[in-house]
């Protein structure tokens, strides 16, 4: 797959938003960009293990570096959320 180049972490145009229903201070975390995916995984995630979690972190990094599209990182985040028992709500415009 050709390299796409470093992408804008905060770009929202090519990222379908979703809401993570998490426990703790920030119960509802809106994710609208790769930067917010990274923030949710690194700062807000309830655990730092799990096969899907680790895959999501790697996939997010690959997307930020431009190796894969943002929607692949979004799908990996959803799988990691399912693994961790975090409900995901698709945001409809």
Description:
This protein is an alpha+beta fold. It has one domain. Helices cover 43% and strands 12% of the residues. The protein is built from 3 helices and 3 strands. It has a 3-stranded antiparallel β-sheet, with helices on one face. α1 packs antiparallel against α2.
For the sheet with most strands, the description reads: 3 strands, antiparallel
Helix content: 40-55%
Structural class: alpha+beta
List the domain count as a whole number: 1
- Overall, the morphology is globular
How far the N terminus sits from the C terminus, by CA atoms, comes to: 31 Å
What is the number of E strands? Answer: 3
Indicate the topology.
Elements: E1 18-21, E2 28-31, H1 34-44, H2 51-64, H3 70-84, E3 88-90
Antiparallel strand pairs: 1-2, 1-3
InterPro entries: DUF982
Organism: Rhizobium lentis
Pfam family, one: DUF982
State the gist of this model.
The chain is of the alpha+beta class. The chain has three helices and three strands, in the order ββαααβ. The protein has a three-stranded antiparallel sheet, covered by helices on one side.
Keywords:
93 residues; alpha+beta; three-stranded antiparallel β-sheet; 3 helices; globular; DUF982; DUF982 domain-containing protein
């Amino acid at each position: 797959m050709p390299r796409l180049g470093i992408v804008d972490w905060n770009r929202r145009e090519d990222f379908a938003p979703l809401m993570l229903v998490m426990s703790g201070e920030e119960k509802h975390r809106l994710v609208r960009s790769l930067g917010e995916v990274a923030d949710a995984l690194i700062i807000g995630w309830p655990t730092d293990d799990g096969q899907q979690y680790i895959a999501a972190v790697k996939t997010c990094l690959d997307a930020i570096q431009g190796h894969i599209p943002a929607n692949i990182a979004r799908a990996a985040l959803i799988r990691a959320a399912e693994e961790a028992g975090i409900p995901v709500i698709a945001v409809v415009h």
